[in-house]
Design a protein that fits this description.
The chain is mainly alpha-helical. It has one domain. About 75% of the residues lie in helices and about 0% in strands. The chain is built from 3 helices and no strands. The longest helix is centred in the middle third of the chain and has 20 residues.
Length: about 60
């Protein structure tokens, strides 16, 4: 679960930075996306259930 805590901390950090008016550049967004993909792959590799975007959209529609 440390990976999820790390990702939550990264997102919280960006939320605070955005609230403060900071605008991320393409490099920063790419780094965040790359980190999220790595965390997702690690969770899948360890057999933890992960929702794909299509699954999230389907559950939201219900």
């Amino acid at each position: 679960m440390k990976l999820l805590e790390f990702m939550a901390a990264e997102l919280d950090d960006w939320e605070a930075r955005l609230d403060a008016g900071e605008k991320p550049g393409l490099a920063e967004l790419s780094r965040l996306a790359r980190t999220a993909r790595k965390v997702h792959r690690a969770l899948e590799k360890n057999g933890l259930p992960v929702l794909m975007p299509e699954q999230n959209a389907a559950s939201d529609a219900q």
